[in-house]
Amino acid sequence: MGEIVHSFDFSNVSGFTIYENSNVVKTDSDGLYTLGFRVVFELPNGFNVVNTPHIQLSFIQNGVSRSIDSNDSVSNNYYICEWTSSQYLAPSSNFESVVIANASIFSPFQNDYPTVRVQQVSNSNINTIAHNRFDAQQNNADLGKFIYSLLRYPFKVSTDVLADIILGYLVLSEQAYLIDEQFYNFELFNGVVNGYYGDNRDVSNSEIFLFLPFYDSKYHLDSKYINTTIKIKYRCDILANKCIIQIFSNDILIDCLDVILGYNIPYIFLTSDIYVEKTVSDTLKNFDNPKIIVEQNLATDNIYNIDFSGSISDFSNGDFVAIDDFSVIKPTENNEDFERLFDILEKGFYI
Amino acid sequence: MIVYLYNMIDDKRKLNKTLDIQTMLTKNFVFKDVSNVNNLNTYTTQFDFHIYNYLYIPELKRYYFIDSVDILNNDRLYVQMSTDYLMTYKTLIDNSILHFVKSSVPKGDKIIFDKKDNINVKTYNINNPFKNSYSDVLITIKG
User: Fold this and answer.
1) CB A348 to CB B13 under 8 A?
2) What are the tens digits of pLDDT across the range B7-37?
3) Environment class of residue B53 by beta-carbon count within 10 Å: exposed (0-12), middle (13-18) or buried (19+)?
């Protein structure tokens, strides 16, 4: 069991409520409270604070920014913040931020993260969860608060053993496979990306584009990496639903990109229409044929094919030109000279 | 035979080479064999050939690149030269109406150009491991 001690900013805390004794007295902050209230936080991200941390609360009260600190004592404008980790309450939008410092927390995965369960679920599992949520709702209990996320990942996860599905205090009569790996690694490409010439000439006139699964747009790889071994790896964290694309050139990491592979399954959410839209758009980012494209202008100095009859004076000093019709240049006395001259004119020269 | 020696700094493929007459050196030189005017090779004791890289021979009306100079025993040099055909036939080229097939950014709007023909495209397929399977992952919070 890994205990991590660090400062933690809960500025995105998802909700908390103010209690007096066991009764909810306020779910917003617009009011003046006296001492003796408890502020109970709903913890995001599945973290669980196991000792009493230092708490600071910032909020707007009657249009004035105020701050509550758990170390502050008696004052009509401050509240004692009594920490409890076992209650999960409705969000309140009035509080701006909460800072919890020096708290000991447990990371949320498997044995290291005892407060959460990470399981691969089937449609049957989800059906059972939905029924239990419905039943609990009849008693004004919302089991949905204990569902941190339900995500579909586009790959097979590694599973361990069957275990009960647990929502808060309720152990469901339903089992699902525990997942035993947090990180999943994929190598999508490992090979030399060659230019046309295979040497330094390729650097100046080539463009390399990467079309990668789930990456929003084509990625422009600097042409200095042409003719090197390119490696593309995806490293996915299924807890955080974060994926890092690592791009290597000759085994040296040259860039990291963030993508999201998991998408919310709309089934259990009330606002399912939003998730459906997001799910579809995320799915579309998974290309059928991801690829690397090297586009190269073989004539190095922006040389164009042209069809023009005229004289050298129609061009500027330094222009690169090539000629294909030599009938107007009549060989005089030295045919070998003209053979060589025509060869040069045909390959191109600078004016 | 009079020769003008230059230090030429332009690309060998440049038609209008800049020849600096301030640093030009005029020499009277005897070529023992000029039967092959395209490529002149000669032995000489004149070390000036070691310093310059380009020359013009008015009598032959030809310009030459000094391609290599080997220093031999007895203070002799072996010099190899090849014709600069562009400069040698520059007047002829300048005065001809030619058909141009390639150019960098053209002058004016009378030249029709097409860049597409010059683009080479190479495609490398990337493996996509995210196509044929999926897993639904539920994360729940225990009480």
Assistant:
1) yes
2) 998 888 899 999 988 888 898 888 877 888 8
3) middle
